[in-house]
Amino acid sequence: MPTAVDIFCGSGGVTQGLRSARWRVLAACDNDPVATATYRANHPRTKLVDGDIRLDDTIDRIASAVRGRAVDLLVICAPCQPFSSQNRHRGDDEREQLIVRALAVAERLKPAMVFFENVPGLATPTYASIVAQVRTKLDELGYVVSDPLLRDAADFGVPQRRRRCIMLAARTRDAVDTFVSLDMTMPRKTVFRAIADLERLESGQASAEDALHRARTHQSIAVERLRHIPADGGSRSSLPAHLELRCHVGKPRSFSDVYGRMAWQDVAPTLTTGCTDITRGRFAHPEQHRAITLREAARLQSFPNDYEFRGNDSDIARQIGNAVPPEMIKAFVPAFRAALKASQR
Ligand SMILES: C[S@@+](CC[C@H](N)C(=O)[O-])C[C@H]1O[C@@H](n2cnc3c(N)ncnc32)[C@H](O)[C@@H]1O
Question: For residues 258 and 247, what is the distance between their CA atoms, to the nearest angstrom?
């Protein structure tokens, strides 16, 4: 069974994807106590190091957890916020360095391959120096590194538009080229396929069977607005003047997704940590007068129904919004395997 180590594991999206493709995740690390509680509940056989990657002690604990076993893949999904277009401290956020710091784990464990996933912002000129630092360090450690590659989770079986920057480092050029050239895309999965079977809920109602399928309680004015927004992809541009939000009057283009509905036959928009809040994006149900529930968000991120989340509702929305969709990682597995094989030739 191929082996992996998952750094910045969060609630475990990457680990879930690898495990569902029969990889063994030997160790994982994160410093968020709620996310690690979720991780532990779902992946009890992985040694979880709850520590700050900036500390030498954390690197030592990860190495002890691996116990000298060979690691095929080290996954580094560093926090995206520093590289996001929404970040007001762009280029001056100390979290930018976490991705470089995490390479200390590669230095210790000497994995066959290192995989990075982040937001497309990482591939922009603003962060060229961070990518250069990553490349230089990996080069010193004897790896060949791919260019940053832009991919969309929607092309890998995830019912969500989620553009990401990925990179692979491996011991040989042949292994990297094998990974880059393998077509791993699959047909798109729609919002309809992902959530249409779930119980109908009104604002404030909860499913008796599924603790994650509970609708937020919206104010009556919010429900009234949603009633005026056309089903299946409608947006706030359809609101009559008396229901327009005061902050939006005369600004049809700014925050145009706010109060928007998802479309049944499309993929969902990118889920964020505010994914169950209609004031933070196109997060209204395609036809019901409410925001999507945590269950619908988890499905749109491709988590299986039996995945257990810890924490309160906003903790769970944050974990779902921050996660790497498990099905995207699972879709990459054939390319990881092929690259691993190529690196051993
Ligand atoms: C993009 S999320 C990871 C998502 C996760 N890989 C998944 O598959 O669901 C980034 C994670 O980095 C963690 N993190 C941020 N700073 C950290 C640090 N200094 N040390 C360890 N983990 C950190 C956060 O708690 C968060 O869970």
Answer: 12
Report pLDDT digits (tens) over 288-334: 999 999 999 999 999 999 999 999 999 999 999 999 999 999 999 99
CA distance 24 to 224: 50
- Enter the DSSP assignment of 325: P
Q: Is residue 225 part of a domain?
A: no
Please write the tens of the pLDDT for every residue from 151-165.
999 999 999 999 999
Query: Is there an atom of ligand 1 within 6 Å of 25 CB?
Result: no
Q: Looking at 29, 80, 165, 275, which residue is catalytic? A: 80
Do the domain assignments include residue 141? yes
Q: Give the CATH number of the domain where residue 168 resides.
A: 3.40.50.150
What count of other Cβ atoms lies within 10 Å of the Cβ of residue 136? 13
Cβ-contact 2, 336 below 8 angstroms: yes
Q: Is residue 308 part of a domain?
A: no
Q: What 3-state DSSP class applies to 76?
A: strand
State the DSSP code for 208.
S
Q: Is 247 a catalytic residue?
A: no
How many domains is the chain partitioned into structurally?
1
Question: Are 188 and 267 spatial neighbours (Cβ–Cβ below 8 Å)?
Answer: yes
Residue 82 within a domain? yes
Q: Is the CB of 97 under 6 A from ligand 1?
A: no
Query: Does the Cβ of 153 fall within 6 Å of ligand 1?
Result: no
Q: How many CB atoms lie within 10 A of CB 341?
A: 12
Structural domain harbouring 40: 3-186+325-343
Distance CA 169, CA 330 (A): 18
